[in-house]
Design a protein that fits this description.
This protein is of the alpha+beta class. The chain is built from one helix and four strands. It has a single domain, classed as Nuclear Transport Factor 2, Chain: A (Roll). It starts with 8 loop residues before the first strand and ends with a strand.
Length: 69
């Protein structure tokens, strides 16, 4: 794993064509190694834009905090 921080919000498209948000939290152990915890949210969205809007409204996400896969 690299030492660059991961974006806290990951937007992915599932096999049904719906979009999901994964919230990722990064913490560092005593050797300064990043440990990432991921939590897939239950909501489904028809577009990535809808998922982004939801994350901004519900979780206070900012524009530069998103990654997509």
């Amino acid at each position: 794993m690299s030492r660059t921080p991961v974006a806290p919000f990951l937007i992915t498209k599932d096999e049904d064509g719906m979009f999901r948000i994964t919230i990722r939290t990064t913490r560092f152990n005593s050797q300064n190694y990043p440990l990432v915890t991921s939590s897939l949210q239950p909501e489904l969205f028809k577009s990535a834009m809808a998922a982004r809007a939801h994350a901004k409204q519900e979780f206070g996400a900012e524009t530069d905090q998103f990654a997509s896969k």
